[in-house]
Design brief:
35% of the residues lie in helices and 20% in strands. By secondary structure, the protein is an alpha+beta fold. The strands form two sheets. A two-stranded parallel sheet has the order 1-2. A two-stranded antiparallel ribbon has the order 3-4. Helix 1 packs across helix 2. The radius of gyration is 15 Å and the shape is globular.
């Protein structure tokens, strides 16, 4: 993840940054990635793309929260917002031996136009209801 602070151009991939981290820290990673996307990379290097592979619902929920807060004009002081157009949430699904890629479109209110794939983050629903 330290590579995200460099001035290098091109594609930077980060694999499972949440690994072995407490959920509170996973949430903070969401803010850190927004910061990198909105300030560091945007100011210093417009030709860089950050790809984060994660299974952390906490990280994703924080980014969605910041989208909502930015839309409503309620961002906490010192935090960056992000536009849905600047975020791409995709997942890979293997069905009948064929792997497909699907993008989940994000609304201005920090929700999804599209449903999560079956089996992804089911635990949250089961715990809440």
């Amino acid at each position: 993840m330290i590579g995200a602070l460099s001035n290098r151009q091109g594609l930077l991939t980060i694999d499972k940054p949440e690994y072995s981290l407490h959920p509170v820290v996973q949430v903070a990673l969401g803010d850190w990635f927004i910061y990198l996307a909105r300030t560091e990379s945007a100011v210093r290097n417009e030709s860089r793309t950050l790809v984060v592979e994660t299974h952390s619902e906490h990280l994703i929920l924080r980014i969605l929260r910041r989208i909502t807060e930015a839309f409503e004009g309620k961002l906490p002081e010192g935090f960056e917002g992000i536009d849905p157009e600047d975020l791409s949430v995709t997942y890979f699904l293997k069905k009948s031996g064929i792997t497909g890629i699907r993008r989940l479109r994000v609304t201005q209110q920090g929700g999804f136009f599209d449903n999560w794939p079956e089996g992804l983050f089911e635990e949250r629903y089961e715990e809440l209801f």
